[in-house]
Amino acid sequence: MARIGNLTLDAPFFQAGLAGYSDAAMRLVARRHGCPYAVTEAMLDQFLIQGGKGLKQAELDDADHPIAGQLMGSHPLEIAQGAGILAGLGYDVIDVNLACPVKKIRKKSRGGHLMQVPDEAIDILQAVRQAVPDHIPCTVKLRRGTDDSAQAEANFFTIFEAVIALGYAAATVHGRTVEQKYIGPSRWAFLKDLVARYGDMPGFSIFGSGDIWTAADIFAMIEQTGVHAVSVARGCIGNPWVFTQARALMSGDEQAATRPPTIDQQRDVLLNHFELSCALHGEKAAGMMMRKFGIKFARHHPVGDAVAKAFIAVKSLSDWRAVLDAHYSAAATEPLAAAGVA
Ligand SMILES: Cc1cc2nc3c(=O)[nH]c(=O)nc-3n(C[C@H](O)[C@H](O)[C@H](O)COP(=O)(O)O)c2cc1C
Q1: Ligand 1: distance of its center to the CA of 34 in Å?
Q2: How far is ligand 1, taken at its centre, from the CA of residue 17, in Å?
Q3: 256 C-alpha vs ligand 1 centroid, how far in Å?
Q4: Contact, 314 vs 291, CB < 8 A?
């Protein structure tokens, strides 16, 4: 069982923070498919402090637990204030992002930028831990370094050892460098070495991230590296079934673990996800938001390219329903099956 402080996960995987995707709608869909824990997308401390829309977006649904609220910031006092706000909103875990490779974030000395300035990173980690009540675990998201230099590696270990010394409950390590962004492989060997060195520290868990596309990848990472749990990121966008399949693998049902979702299952999820998104963002914003999900969901469909095109044109819930009727009904898929496509 994976642990995060006082929290026990009944499965060794979770949904990653994914900016622009992992809102409450995506998280609730994931949970309904067996995901035991989720991280929000990175929230800017200043947005929480300023109140208004940023704070409103951080509010939680009762069904959306256990959850980590992920924070990004550049100043210890501000990020500590943000952490206090998230704790007050009922987040079960507070996660600090030291990993984001996006240029405009790094330029403001946030996210992945902090991997190259260990003193600043440690001040931030310390301020957050102090601001959060003891019973709420703090965690951190890191990359394996800024780049492949020896200095970057030294900086990583300085920060990582501080994470443990400060009483953080877990670290999720993405096996790519900040410079790599998302290009090239995640270095699982780095995770393996990390677990060999720090995997037995009491009260501290190491989670792995990078190149998890299937349920089998989750368990391959655990087997090859020894991480305590695995963060599922791009592999679960438009694919909540990765969690069902991972649960199937846990119970030894190899067949179910590779069984693709049926058209009916896809239809149910597509409708549910859109309705949740509408409730969260309003119909217009949900229409925009769901297009990019539609493109990913379409990959499960026998005529995915045509379906993706149809999703791109969606503006409203009724447009979305029309795509479902056109492509996800028995009338639409029976001819495909007869032609041997479905
Ligand atoms: C579009 C996108 C947005 C992301 N946003 C976040 C984020 O807000 N917080 C975070 O910790 N990681 C974020 N990540 C990184 C992922 O959580 C994960 O570490 C990374 O994608 C590597 O895993 P993968 O190769 O299995 O996708 C993001 C990744 C992508 C592709």
Answers
A1: 20
A2: 6
A3: 27
A4: yes
* Residue ranges covered by each domain of the chain: 2-258, 263-338
Predicted confidence (pLDDT) per residue in 286-335, tens digit:
999 999 999 999 999 999 999 999 999 999 999 999 999 999 998 888 77
Output the CA 230–ligand 1 centroid distance in Å.
13
Amino acid identity at 208: G
Q: Which of 178, 209, 217, 293 to mutate to test the pocket of ligand 1 (most atoms within 8 A of CB)?
A: 209
Task: Kindly report, residue by residue over 19-74, the tens digit of the pLDDT.
Answer: 999 999 999 999 999 999 999 999 999 999 999 888 999 999 999 999 999 999 99
Q: How far is the C-alpha of 331 from the C-alpha of 128, rounded, in Å?
A: 55
Q: Across the chain, how many H-helices and E-strands are there?
A: 16, 11
CA atoms within 13 A on the CB side of 21: 22
What's the pLDDT score for residue 109? 87
Average pLDDT, the chain: 96
Q: Tokens at residue 100, please? A: 């984001």
CA-angle at 1, arms to 140 and 225, nearest 5°: 65
Q: Hey, which bits of 175-288 come out as E strands? A: 205-209, 229-232
CATH topology for 2-258?
TIM Barrel (3.20.20)
Spacing, Cα 340 to ligand 1 middle (Å)? 37
Average pLDDT over residues 116-131: 97
Q: Which of 225, 234, 289 to mutate to test the pocket of ligand 1 (most atoms within 8 A of CB)?
A: 234
CB 169 within 8 A of CB 203: yes
Which residues have CB under 6 Å of ligand 1? 16-20, 41-42, 70, 97, 99, 141, 174, 182, 186, 209-212, 231, 233-235
Residue type at 176 in one-letter notation = R
Beta bridge partners of 7: 4
For 21, the token pair is 């995707």
Token pair of 52 as six digits: 């208004």
